[in-house]
Amino acid sequence: MSDKLQMMLEDAKELNALGLMSDSEVDAIAVMVKAREVSARIAKVKSMTGEEIKAIRTRYGMSQSVLAHTMGMSKESISKWERNEIKPSGPALRILNTLAIKGPEVFAK
């Protein structure tokens, strides 16, 4: 799809040069191409089990309280995740994925 969008952008530039397409239309296509490129570089979010969350936390020597503080969550949420009572989703799951890959240093000042 990205190749097709890139080809569409090149065609749009040519049409623009001929006066058949406006600058704003070309810009709109360029924004779509850039968004697609950025999206392709962002890692997919992987769901996690309670055991995986606890393993991340213990790998970095973090208590439930420290992980909760790092994530802007409550200790109770971390505990429920680790017991598989509830599953993290949305931004919390993205933060857990980032922690798993990069470690807590990614959030350092």
Structure summarized in a few sentences:
With 109 residues, this protein is mostly helical. The protein contains 6 helices and no strands.
Helix-strand layout with pairing:
Blueprint: H1 2-17, H2 23-41, H3 50-59, H4 64-71, H5 75-82, H6 90-102
Helix pairs in contact: 1-2, 3-5, 4-5
Structure in words:
InterPro entries: Cro/C1-type_HTH (IPR001387), HTH-type_reg/antitoxin (IPR052359), Lambda_DNA-bd_dom_sf (IPR010982). Residues 53-106 form the HTH cro/C1-type domain. Keywords: DNA-binding, Transcription, Transcription regulation. By secondary structure, this protein is mainly alpha-helical. The protein has 2 domains: 2-41, no CATH class; 50-107, Orthogonal Bundle (434 Repressor (Amino-terminal Domain)), CATH 1.10.260. The protein is 68% helix and 0% strand. It contains 6 helices and no strands. The protein has helices at residues 2-17, 23-41, 50-59, 64-71, 75-82, 90-102. Helix 3 packs across helix 5 (75-82) and helix 4 packs across helix 5. It is rod-shaped. The mean pLDDT is 94.
Keywords summarizing the entry:
single chain, 109 residues, mainly alpha, 434 Repressor (Amino-terminal Domain), 2 domains, rod-shaped, Cro/C1-type_HTH
